[in-house]
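Sequence in, structure out.
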Amino acid sequence: MKIIDAHQHFWDITSNYLPWLCDAEPLPNFRYGDYSALRRNYMPADYRRDSEGFEVIGGVFVETEWDPGDPLGEIAWVKNLAAREALPSVAVGQAWLDRGDAPELLAAYGADGFLRGIRHKPRAVGRPEAVEPGAPGSMGDPAWRRGFRHLAPNGLSFDLQTPWWHLAEARQLADDHGDTVIILNHTGLPSDRSPEGLKGWREALALFAGAPNTLIKISGIGVPGSAWPVEANRPVVLDAIELFGTGRAMFASNFPVDSLVATYREIYSGFDRITGSLTASEREDLFWRTAAEVYRVPLEQPASKAAE
């Protein structure tokens, strides 16, 4: 099976400033716990070692929380990397939609043929009952929405990373901006695997999936302290596919972040096992075709070989 990895990261923390990896104080409440193992350079050669044995034909670089004062610097760096290494194929850049410079930044991204969209993690709370509609920095914040309006005119999609209990806000955003493709990252973060938690996640996901301009990346579903659990992840993967359909769903590794909870082989072999009963065409959607279409990934040159 060919693979377009719909969510991958590269970084060189010896040359560039990524606060969460470079600062001495770690992020609190990181969803996989201790992430000190990520405080090292991760480049295409490392990714190719991790993905050895798989036919990776392309990859989507997603912003890495690079220095927020220099988002264009990350794109210049990753474009140079791609020219040398033939990975990544395209990129999703960093943007802070509620900042005053958002319109200018999004215009610059739209003029760059390597960029396909942006990611901005809107303000989120830690539990469903704490959601405050319209809170500053959230998807309902008027200032945030003013920035969001500049995506479609610049030909940019939006990668949304938020816990599932904010998906009602996301559905309203999708309804109000039907001209903008919204791609939910990491399966809506179903970290609570209790029956009640999964019920709430599925209901929120179904609401969000009801908007035709929404898609989902099935990724980021590792369970801390356990090897990538196929049986525990099976209902999460199959529910997401059922709600969105294979034409609006795609698999991704989230490497190297998900290397904290699984090997690349465990993740993609798990996807393979879980979807074994689907048709060949449906599986192609999930493993590469949906990502190729939504991110307009050029397929002329295989990404499995570095550029000469």
